[in-house]
């Protein structure tokens, strides 16, 4: 398929060129549990028809300076108010010099334009969907905002259409959130084509010293065909989650950030890949964890050799770099999250980026002993149990996979769970399947209570705000969760190929 011609053809059809985007897909993955209700499927098939085996680009240029993330400018002149126009559409990028790749971009930026706001700010974003032939939405991952402003798949914005998202940033919510599309069965594809960006909420009083800096490391991945097009999902991607051939930090492969030897620095780490687990370590250095999905923790946790970020998870860390000049790699170590079918990647340690320690050595910065107050949720008023399962089968001689919660595949016309606003609930999430599934719940931050596996129960050692928690195979994770507002909320596995294949449910908060 010639992507350069595709744009022209799409235009000639008056902007309804979606069929062309999909026209050359080969056989679709058959998902027995796949719900076909909810519309939007006609002529499209589901996201991630199996790609034909094409030559891939295996090497990309390395070692450029860490790119600054593009920012979405605030056009409001009112205090405590953020207004902007956000446009999702096609943009050109050269991952390999001279070879144009059409990506999807927010306001032309890849990764998308970062939004920075403060607690209490009033947000008004006019979203323009210029993704050819596909509906889209903007989901504000991790934020406690009204359900009808949260980009649910039930509220699609048609291609060529627009809508306004309006909400207020809650108090005490400073943290590293992000935004990405959530259209029915199209979220995975739009994300891996480039639609995702950080959404930073700054606190009124940030307890971390400003001298630490504040650097966002937005980790995504990309797979490119030899002709420069973004590779469609393979069967292995559909089953196991798309890992992506090349891991990118702020859109670049193995970029370099220069820091003074001996310095202490603050980083916000994002796993914005569809389905790659990032088991992060920093060559020769410990990391201090200061924050999780929903912002800073009560106190820093020092001496970490590794941090696992499942898809969609974030971590805020502080690193005290050594006093000698040289290079330090941030690496992704092998992690076994379970694998179905062929195409299992080799277990290798990847360099994700490099810190170059050079210049005049400086002294480390001491962190405050406490960062924030987090009150533990009390007795739950209700309990729920959720169970992940996989449903393997055969169709036309090919292996098929269904991804289910409580034995059901997502149906946007069906309410799966009910809660009451303001009530604390205890959710027991059991993964009866063979792969890890990172569970995400919209519109709130929860607290992990304990984990149980192989008959052993361990209390969660740190009190922290989370919106995504990895549940390994045969593990039970118990969380306490509370939604502050009524409305329909999604909960799903954040391996987006699994989410697209049905591993999602609807919670009605009354
Ligand atoms: Cu990152 Cu349903 O979301
Ligand atoms: Cu979300
Ligand atoms: Cu999953």
Quick overview:
The protein is mainly β. The chain has helices at residues 3-12, 18-23, 187-192, 235-240, 496-500; strands at 81-96, 99-106, 115-118, 122-130, 139-141, 162-168, 175-180, 197-202, 215-222, 246-249, 252-253, 256-259, 264-271, 278-282, 287-292, 295-304, 307-309, 314-320, 326-333, 350-357, 382-395, 398-405, 417-419, 424-431, 437-441, 447-453, 456-459, 468-471, 476-482, 487-493, 504-509. It has 5 helices and 31 strands.
Structure description:
The chain has 510 residues and is mostly beta strands. The protein folds into three domains: 3-10 and 210-357, Cupredoxins -  blue copper proteins (Immunoglobulin-like, Sandwich); 60-202, Cupredoxins -  blue copper proteins (Immunoglobulin-like, Sandwich); 382-509, Cupredoxins -  blue copper proteins (Immunoglobulin-like, Sandwich). It contains five helices and 31 strands. The chain has a seven-stranded mixed β-sheet with strand order 11-10-9-13-18-15-16, with no helix packed on it. The chain has a six-stranded mixed β-sheet with strand order 22-21-24-29-26-27, with no helix packed on it. The relative contact order is 0.15. Residues 1-49 have low confidence and may be disordered. Bound molecules: CU-O-CU linkage (C2O) and copper (II) ion (CU) (2 copies). Residues 403, 437, 493, 495, 498, 503 line the site of one copper (II) ion.
Low-confidence parts: 1-49
Output the strand order for the largest sheet: 11-10-9-13-18-15-16
Task: Name the CATH superfamily classification of the largest domain.
Answer: Cupredoxins -  blue copper proteins
Count of the domains: 3
N-to-C CA distance: 48 Å
Quote the beta fraction: 35-45%
The largest sheet, given as strand count, sense and whether it forms a barrel, is: 7 strands, mixed
Instruction: Indicate the mean pLDDT.
Output: 90
Named CATH architecture of the largest domain: Sandwich
Instruction: Kindly identify the CATH topology of the largest domain.
Output: Immunoglobulin-like
Which class best fits the helix and strand makeup? mainly beta
């Amino acid at each position: 398929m010639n992507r350069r011609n595709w744009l022209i053809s799409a235009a000639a059809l008056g902007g309804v060129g979606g069929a062309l985007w999909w026209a050359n897909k080969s056989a679709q993955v058959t998902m027995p549990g796949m719900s076909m209700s909810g519309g939007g499927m006609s002529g499209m098939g589901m996201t991630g028809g199996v790609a034909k085996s094409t030559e891939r680009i295996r090497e990309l240029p390395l070692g450029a300076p860490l790119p600054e993330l593009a920012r979405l400018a605030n056009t409001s002149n009112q205090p405590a108010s953020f207004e902007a126009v956000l446009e999702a559409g096609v943009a050109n990028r050269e991952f390999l010099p001279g070879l144009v790749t059409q990506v999807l971009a927010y306001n032309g930026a890849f990764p998308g334009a970062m939004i920075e706001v403060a607690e209490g700010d009033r947000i008004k974003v006019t979203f323009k969907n210029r993704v050819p032939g596909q509906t889209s939405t903007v989901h504000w991952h991790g934020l406690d905002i009204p359900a009808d402003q949260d980009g649910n798949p039930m509220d699609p914005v048609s291609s060529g259409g627009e809508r306004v998202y309006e909400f207020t940033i809650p108090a005490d919510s400073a943290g590293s959130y992000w935004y990405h599309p959530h259209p029915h069965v199209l979220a995975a594809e739009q994300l891996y084509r480039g639609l995702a960006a950080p959404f930073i909420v700054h606190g009124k009083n940030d307890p971390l010293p400003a001298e630490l800096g504040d650097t966002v490391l937005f980790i995504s991945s990309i797979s490119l065909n030899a002709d420069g097009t973004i590779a469609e999902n393979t069967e292995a991607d559909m089953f196991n989650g798309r890992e992506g051939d090349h891991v990118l930090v702020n859109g670049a492969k193995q970029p370099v950030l220069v820091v003074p030897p001996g310095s202490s620095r603050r980083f916000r780490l994002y796993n914005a890949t569809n389905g790659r687990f990032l088991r992060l370590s920093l060559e020769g250095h410990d990391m201090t964890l200061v924050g999780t999905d929903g912002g800073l923790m009560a106190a820093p946790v020092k001496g970490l050799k590794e941090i696992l970020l499942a898809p969609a998870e974030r971590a805020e860390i502080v690193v005290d770099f050594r006093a000698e000049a040289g290079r330090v790699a941030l690496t992704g170590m092998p992690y076994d999250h379970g694998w179905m079918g062929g195409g299992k990647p080799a277990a290798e340690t990847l360099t994700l980026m490099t810190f170059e320690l050079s210049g005049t050595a400086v002294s480390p910065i001491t962190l405050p002993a406490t960062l924030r107050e987090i009150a533990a949720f009390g007795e739950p008023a209700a309990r729920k149990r959720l169970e992940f399962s996989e449903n393997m089968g055969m169709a036309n001689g090919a292996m098929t996979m269904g991804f289910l919660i409580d034995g059901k595949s997502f149906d946007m016309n069906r309410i799966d769970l009910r809660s009451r606003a303001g009530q604390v609930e205890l959710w027991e999430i059991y993964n009866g399947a063979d792969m890890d599934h990172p569970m995400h719940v919209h519109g709130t931050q929860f607290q992990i209570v304990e984990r149980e596996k192989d008959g052993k129960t361990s209390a969660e050692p740190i009190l922290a705000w989370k919106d995504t928690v990895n549940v390994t195979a045969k593990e039970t994770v118990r969380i306490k969760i509370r939604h502050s507002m009524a409305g329909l909320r999604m909960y799903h596995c954040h391996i987006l190929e699994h989410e697209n294949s049905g591993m999602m449910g609807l919670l009605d908060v009354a």
